[in-house]
Amino acid sequence: MQEVPIRSEWFEGAVSLEAGDGWPRPWRLPFERRRLYDDVLVDRAGTSAGVRVRFRTDARRVGLAVVPLDAPRSFDLVVGNELIETALLKAGEETVRFERLAEGSKVVEVWLPQAHAVAVRTVLADRGAGVEAAPDRRRRWVTYGSSITHCGGAHSPARTWPAIAARRGNVHLTCLGFGGNCHLDPLVAAVIRDLPADMISLKVGVNIYGSASLSERTFWPNLAAFAQIIREKHPTTPLAVVSAIISPPRETTPNAVGLTLVKMRQQVRAAVERMRELGDGNVRYFDGLEVFGPELVDPCLPDGLHPNAEGYERLGENF
């Protein structure tokens, strides 16, 4: 197979790229400004959830040469929103390959592992095959959330719930799911504000409950402020605000500052209603229990908080 130099415009779903020695690494926050963010949030932003390498080729076999890690990583090959193949790259290995492509010219996307960093050296393709840019012109969706949006336990990168929803809806995805770190950071709102977007969703609540990082006094005002920062450059972009999915241990048990998930859903709804009363007709509230509710606890919520792989599939379909 031939090695084709990777080009920055072939990365989709990344916020920025780190330029290394012979490799770019995608980030989901501005890499050059990373010291302004909490260190754990930066660590989560360095993983590749929702990021993919996209190009047009007539090759029957493609792949990536990457910088090795001391951990196994899964990659997905997607053509036309259809998941064609999943490949596991073992710890220490540097080359991931896919060999099930059909003949003829097609746009392929290699989805990068959602829970790990990936620095890409080159694209691989059959010798003599063409490899060229394939800009994604579809409507752009930006989604923000916690580990439940980061989806570390999904079957594979293209089977996280945001990836499933994006492929079903035929939209361009930017996933800002940060495990344990959905705390309505104002600088994250500024990132969303500055991204191109035709639709935006915010799925909020459970990390704030778990860390008691906001109280009943500060939760909904911070959510409203987060939305207003986004509105500075997206004044009419459809904005979906989604409350927490089911979590039986947290529904009615007060946390360290007296919040429950029941109270938090009420506050999220109230914040959205206030925005609508002030003239924002393009913001809507969605109850998290309607996308992942009590009926899914037994088969799909083994720890009472995080969906399992099948649960992420159901969440993506419902969303």
Descriptive account of the structure:
- This protein has 319 residues and is an alpha+beta fold.
- 26% of the residues lie in helices and 26% in strands.
- A hairpin with a 4-residue loop joins strand 3 and strand 4 (24-27).
- Helix 3 packs parallel to helix 10, helix 4 (186-194) runs parallel beside helix 6 (219-231) and helix 6 (219-231) crosses helix 7 (261-277).
- The relative contact order is 0.13.
- The model has no long low-confidence stretch (mean pLDDT 98).
Gist?
Helices cover 26% and strands 26% of the residues.
Note the main attributes of this structure.
10 helices, 319 residues, 17 strands, 5-stranded parallel β-sheet, 6-stranded antiparallel β-sheet, alpha+beta, 26% helix
Structural class: alpha+beta
Q: Can you write the helix and strand succession as a string?
A: EEEEHEEEEEEEEEHHEHEHHEHEHHH
Report the count of strand segments.
17
Mean pLDDT: 98
Strand content: 25-35%
Helicity, as a percent range: 25-40%
Distance from N terminus to C terminus (CA atoms, Å) equals: 40 Å
Based on CA inertia axes, which overall geometry fits?
globular
The total count of helices amounts to 10
How many strands, which pairing sense, and closed or not: the largest β-sheet? 6 strands, antiparallel
As residue ranges, the low-confidence spans are none
Cα radius of gyration in angstroms: 20 Å
